[in-house]
Design a protein that fits this description.
2 strands, mainly alpha, two-stranded antiparallel ribbon, globular, 504 residues
Length: 504
């Protein structure tokens, strides 16, 4: 009893930096408000939920901005398990802006879908909260909790259209494969804890050195953790869920999964390999090299064969993930900070372009009610603005200057050339070949828009809701500005430094 009393007296409450946690707190309060308003609001006024969701995201963005402008101090909470640094702030800003665009894309779709609107917005905010947590997590437990926080709502969002067999299939496939990947990753994390006797990433970095009697176990743990996140970013051969899930899920959810959710997976992977496994680069670098080459190539090859636009974009998203992995494959060598910058730049540009792509798909599908590429025939002749926007986003994804996509690819190739190893040059060649292949299916869609006849001669104008117009405007401007003024994208990459990742 005396011992218990002594230990109780010695315990002191940890100091909590509420400013650092403000984005997460605001978002948590916002999702609770959305849930409560949904309970006490009539069906006629459910449109208020999308407004509240948007304001919640904007409210969470304000402390991110104040933290970024306040100083360059790294805020460490809970004994280094939760860190707010420049890297996490850039990523949180990306997630919140992407989330706001998703809200704009979703508003009309959700209102017209005759489905459970309150649940949709609640799940979306919950998943975004998990992404904010992921950006700051520097501990195995917090990383895993953040991952499940963002993943479980995403499983349900994929199956949101409960009376649609394809949506149910999408959600079930995503859930089963996601749980399997989480189990593999959790097993790897348990091995890491056993080796380091700690869940802190910096402690794990000191223990995982690939030497001694447990070198094989260390290597196995690293591979298992990387495999878990390879599923999240739909890297080949862990991509099999992506095409069916993207096609079956509601289009705004597909946009969310292909941009925000994928970006969160990449961020977690970056943090782990650079912070927890710097001494194990001989294991994860060749592994990620193979993943990158396979993901780019197989994603592109399958995209060439698609006739469904969303399914083509799904394989395109797989391929784009391979390009993000390119600089990460050399992050442990001479490329160093250049590789990290390339990953951040690519994610920022990809988010703007791909969200715009899905916005254009949503706008056209309101008229065509079809996902076939052929349904875009003659789009420019009866909807010239949408035709131009489609072309901008497709050309950006292909990496054609002066649109945003070129600076993302440039940064990725620059990281490989900075590494200056035969393996880096080989991956650069593979990337260049795949860039040419990708233009094949992007160009095919452009040809439909500009050169093909209108299906059935239907020249009915496309009616686009105002929220969707705003989303298209934001993404189009971002895609153009990031391409014409690449210094803006490069600035985000320059400031996004993971504390301690490169000895700083």
């Amino acid at each position: 009893m005396e011992l218990l009393a002594a230990s109780t007296a010695a315990w002191t409450a940890p100091t909590i930096d509420y400013h650092a946690l403000a984005p997460e707190i605001v978002l948590a309060v916002g999702l609770c408000v959305v849930l409560l308003v949904d309970l006490f609001t009539t069906e006629r006024n459910k449109w208020l939920l999308s407004v509240l969701t948007g304001f919640s995201l904007l409210g969470a963005a304000l402390p991110v901005l104040t933290l970024a402008l306040h100083d360059n101090t790294t805020r460490s909470l809970f004994d280094g398990r939760y860190v707010v640094d420049e890297f996490s702030l850039v990523m949180k800003g990306l997630f919140l802006v992407a989330g706001y665009v998703i809200v704009l894309l979703s508003s009309a779709h959700v209102e017209e879908g005759d489905y459970w609107r309150g649940e949709y917005w609640f799940l979306l905010l919950t998943s975004l909260l998990g992404m904010l947590m992921m950006a700051s997590s520097r501990d195995l437990v917090s990383v895993f909790v953040a991952l499940e926080f963002l993943s479980i709502p995403a499983y349900m969002l994929a199956a949101w259209r409960k009376r649609d067999a394809k949506s149910n299939e999408a959600g079930m496939k995503y859930f089963l494969l996601g749980v399997f990947a989480s189990a593999v990753m959790l097993y790897g994390m348990s091995l890491l804890y056993g080796l380091a006797n700690s869940t802190l990433l910096v402690d794990i970095a000191e223990s995982v050195s690939l030497d001694g009697e447990f070198a094989a176990v260390q290597a196995l743990a690293v591979v298992f953790v990387v495999v878990g996140f390879a599923f999240k970013v739909s890297a080949v051969p862990f991509h099999t869920w992506a095409p069916d899930t993207y096609e079956g899920a509601p289009t705004p959810v597909t946009a969310f999964l292909s941009v925000a959710s994928k970006a969160a997976g990449f961020i977690a992977l970056v943090v782990l390999v650079l912070t927890a496994f710097p001494q194990a680069r001989d294991v994860w670098q060749p592994f990620i090299w193979v993943l990158s080459a396979l993901t780019m190539t197989i994603g592109n090859v399958f995209a060439l064969r698609q006739t469904n636009l969303v399914r083509m974009i799904a394989y395109s998203s797989v391929s784009q993930g391979g390009f993000v992995l390119m600089p990460l494959a050399v992050a442990g060598g001479a490329a160093g900070e250049s590789a990290l910058r390339a990953v951040v730049v690519y994610l920022v540009v990809y988010a703007a372009t791909n969200l715009g792509m899905f916005g254009a798909i949503l706008a056209v599908s309101r008229k065509t009610r079809s996902g076939d590429i052929a349904s875009l025939g003659g789009l420019f002749s009866y909807a010239p603005a949408l035709g131009v926007l489609f072309t901008i986003f497709l050309a950006s994804l292909a990496g054609i200057p002066p649109l945003g996509g070129w600076i993302g690819k440039f940064a990725a190739f620059q990281a490989l050339l900075t590494d200056a190893t035969p393996w880096a040059y080989a991956l650069a060649v593979i990337g260049a070949v795949n860039s040419v292949i990708a233009f094949g299916y992007y160009g095919n869609v452009m040809r439909e828009i500009w050169m093909r006849p209108i299906p059935h001669g239907d020249t009915t104008p496309v009616v686009t809701p105002s929220s969707l117009q705003i989303a298209l405007g934001i993404t189009a401007v971002a895609t153009l500005v990031l391409g014409v003024l690449p210094g803006i994208a490069l600035h985000f990459g320059d400031v996004a430094d993971i504390v301690g990742a490169f000895g700083g």
